[in-house]
Design a protein that fits this description.
Layout (H helix, E strand, L loop, with lengths): L7 E8 L3 H12 L2 E6 L6 H7 L5 E8 L6 E9 L15 E9 L2 H10 L16 E5 L5 E5 L16 E9 L3 H12 L23 E8 L4 E9 L15 E9 L2 H13 L3 E2 L4 E2 L3 E7 L5 E7 L21 E9 L3 H7 L6 H11 L8 E5 L6 E6 L5 E13 L2 E12 L5 H28 L1
Parallel strand pairs: 1-4, 5-7, 8-10, 11-15
Antiparallel strand pairs: 1-11, 2-3, 3-4, 5-8, 6-7, 9-10, 12-14, 13-14, 14-15, 16-20, 17-18, 18-19, 19-20
């Protein structure tokens, strides 16, 4: 279990576009298990202020593997909408850039992931028994697949999972500053054991890359700090928010208030800024802090009896972000290349205009986020903030084979603003889906004529 005084890294938190899709990817592809979730708690004022986004609303799900006391925490933000990972995002770019998972069967895992649209990004490295590969999740997060467990002596649970969380990597512009900061949190110097060397860079498509590396042994998960000199990592956007899609932070946990306060004071002494004062719920507590470089860390404490999010359990209907789903398809009289142009080919302005026209009543104030699918290069994903009858909705517009022709398929999932009026929202949504498809077909034909 978690040591009373020395913290362990027991949480990797993700902001995702579509909780249900990403959770299926982690369960069906990697073998993780769901461990409950909540929509209500993440709608309360303290949640947004703790994360540094007053007024934020999200749904949170937990997932676990064979770790004894570590979890994945996944947020689907409905306010504000998380901005998509850029298509050109690299594993060297600044921030929490990748995570690592040990799996029970390397070959079968890669087969399952390939069936879900996640083929290896680069080469598979290592001989049989010690192989490693890297894929991207539906949100574009780099996930390393490890055949050999880098922490073979770490405690393990007995749950029927095929995967174990084993690493998370921070790409930093100031290597020494990040080492000092995490040494203060963990109370230990970097480990002499390396997780990667130069030969591994080809796994995530960075063959020949040069960087400094250090690791911290944080219990059941290794924290790796890297700083790239070639290629130099792209900084995060000046408008970055913790709700933006990707690994948003990591969490360190202890069992006692005293240890929690001691670690919290250490971070403040090194210049970290909390989003608000630590929250104390009696049996547990937490605080989000941002180090001087802007990286978020959650410091939490919980009595050993607190098990929420750490034991296998199904997701209740109350914790599902969207409770309605519709799909409509229209045929395109277009060649494959012309059909591809319908999805924007990098310029999503026509798609955004169509989505805004049919679902946001042309209101420019309604937030829309859009991006290419990381697991289907013939699909575009989008989300729309509250508008009309819809409290929130997300969708996928994709090319698909239909009757020996190319079809355009629009899938939409949403939550109605007015419980009991789902039938009306369904009627309106289906009509608008059809209107949107007709508009996109018209755009496809006009592009063909040009």
């Amino acid at each position: 279990m978690i040591a009373a005084e020395r913290p362990v890294l027991n949480q990797i938190a993700l902001s995702v576009m579509d909780l249900e899709k990403t959770a299926r990817w982690f369960t069906d592809g990697l073998g993780f298990l769901t461990a409950g979730g909540t929509r209500l708690l993440m709608s309360l004022p303290f949640s947004g202020s703790a994360q540094g986004i007053p007024g934020a609303r999200s749904t949170c799900w937990f997932m676990i593997g064979c770790n004894q006391r570590a979890q994945l925490e996944m947020f689907q933000f409905t306010r504000p909408l998380g901005r998509c990972i850029p298509n050109d995002f690299r594993a060297c770019d600044i921030g929490y850039s990748r995570m690592g998972v040990h799996v029970a069967d390397f070959d079968e895992t890669l087969k399952r992931l390939a069936a879900l649209g996640s083929a290896p990004v680069g080469s598979v490295v290592g001989h049989h028994g010690v192989r490693r590969a890297c894929v991207r999740s539906p949100d574009g997060v780099f996930v390393e697949i490890m055949e050999t467990d880098p922490l073979p002596n770490a405690p393990r649970s007995t749950v029927a999972s095929q995967a174990t969380l084993r690493s998370v990597t921070l790409s930093t512009p100031d290597f020494d500053a990040s080492l000092r900061y995490f040494a203060a949190i963990t109370g230990a110097a970097p480990s002499p054991t390396a997780l990667h060397d130069d030969a591994h860079e080809i796994i995530w498509g960075l063959s020949g890359a040069q960087c400094q590396r250090a690791t911290f042994d944080c219990g059941e998960i290794i924290l790796e700090i890297v700083s790239y000199s070639d290629p130099i990592g792209t900084p995060r956007s000046s408008t970055y928010r913790i709700s933006d899609i990707g690994i948003l932070n990591i969490g360190f946990g202890v069992h006692s208030r005293r240890a929690h306060r001691r670690i919290y004071r250490r971070t403040l002494e090194l210049g970290a800024q909390p989003n608000r004062a630590p929250l104390d719920f009696g049996a547990c507590g937490m605080v989000y802090v941002n180090d001087p470089l802007g990286f978020s860390t959650e410091i939490l404490w919980a009595r050993e009896s607190v098990t929420f999010g750490f034991i296998p359990s199904p997701i209740s209907s109350s914790a599902i972000p969207c409770d309605h789903e519709l799909t409509e398809t229209i045929l395109l009289a277009a060649a494959p290349a012309e059909a591809e142009a319908t999805l924007g080919a990098g310029d999503f302005a026509p798609l955004v205009a169509t989505i805004r026209k049919v679902f946001a009543d042309r209101a420019a104030s309604v937030a829309i986020e859009i991006g290419r699918s990381a697991t289907n290069d013939r699909a575009v994903l989008y989300r729309v903030a509250r508008s009309g009858l819809f409290a929130y909705h997300l969708g996928a517009i994709a090319l698909a084979a239909e009757q020996d022709q190319i079809g355009l398929r629009w899938n939409m999932r949403y939550r109605s603003r007015f419980p009991g009026l789902g039938w009306l929202a369904n009627h309106l949504a289906r009509r608008r889906l059809r209107e949107g498809l007709v508009e996109l077909r018209r755009l496809s034909r006009s592009q063909k004529q040009e």
